[in-house]
Amino acid sequence: MRILLVEDESKVSSFVARGLMAERFAVDVAADGQSGLELATTYHYDLVILDLMLPKVDGTQVLKRIRSHNSSVPVLILTARDAITDKVGNFEAGADDYLTKPFAFAELLVRVKALLRRGPVSRQSVVRVADLELDRFTQQVKRAGKRIDLTSKEYSLLEYLMANCGRVLSRTMIIEHVWDQSFDGITNIVDVYVRHLRSKVDDPYERKLIQTVRGVGYTIIDEAET
Ligand code: CA
Questions:
Q1: Cβ atoms of 62 and 33 closer than 8 Å
Q2: Is the same domain home to 70 and 35?
Q3: Same domain, 39 and 78
């Protein structure tokens, strides 16, 4: 697996690159947006880790140009900023995930592995399962045209399930993807959140979309289509 790391802070880039190489990834490092873009459009990468605040060409521009060249490589954004407008703008430009600085290497590794497992995905903003609809730009969820209000964790959980529609996700996979290092290890947390999510997304409707796979985990599926 070959990873491109575009990061101008040498401390951050050497700590990330060393960590990834220790995990047996091949890592190319670019210290500014322009060389990052040159590498990204010259070589084939399995993943790009991209800082937003970069000299020469900023991260958002790099992302847009990577997307116009190669629409499917997963891109993980590193950012010191946590503004929702940034996230919306960059999701629109084609980011797959975010990590806010400072971060622990373990957390980065979890995100990297999750993106690599998922592989290239469709970049449509709206994901649909039956009459359930999730918009990644506006972060709005609707079922049968009716808006459903979710907490941010419920939203992340639903987004992860819907992005992997039909695929069974284990509790471990869900925890790794939806919770961060602040997760304190309550073992039934996934079940608790799935219950909350079901009460909003499935219980009021006749057709149940979220399925429990006994002994394994959960999946979301449109049974009418299988
Ligand atoms: Ca930077």
A1: yes
A2: yes
A3: yes
Strands 217-220 and 210-213: antiparallel
Total domains in the fold of the chain: 2
How far, in Å, is the centroid of ligand 1 from the Cα of 56? 11
Checking if the pLDDT of 205 tops 70, the result is yes
Nearest to 177 by CA among 110, 99, 88: 110
- Print the SS3 string covering 139-183: CEEEECCEEECCCHHHHHHHHHHHHCCCCCEEHHHHHHHHCCCCC
CA 127 to ligand 1 center in whole angstroms? 32
CB within 8 Å of 136: residues ≥ 6 apart: 91, 125, 126, 127, 159
Q: Ligand 1 centroid vs 45 CA: distance in angstroms?
A: 21
The CATH number given to whatever domain includes residue 185 is: 1.10.10.10
Residue of 16 and 222 predicted with greater confidence: 16
- pLDDT, one tens digit per residue, over 99-143 is 888 899 999 999 999 888 876 665 667 889 999 999 877 889 999
Distance between CA atoms of residues 81 and 64, nearest Å: 18
Residue 31 above 60 pLDDT? yes
